[in-house]
Request: fold
Amino acid sequence: MEPNDWVKELPAEVTVCDEAGRLTEMNDAAEGGRGLLGADVLDCHTDADRRKLEVMLKEGRSNVCLNEENGTLTFVYQSPWYADGRCAGLVDISFGVPGEIPHHLRE
Reply:
């Protein structure tokens, strides 16, 4: 197994961009498919989301949210990734949320 093979068929959308916003990695579930590799991630979003991504790239910020579209709930986790201690781009992992989720308190 190659180092990144685990993510290829993961049942979640995974995209990675570099510090300039160019898509460098995508798995099979990612919206738009691998044909978008090399494209500007900012071109794939609405103006509001574009501004948020620009700030995240510039300041190395994370974003975690739930999106609902057509009755489908999606969990979105966006985080900077680092090379040599500096923000080198963003990782976006998104997956559908089932109707009920167990909540466990650990001590």
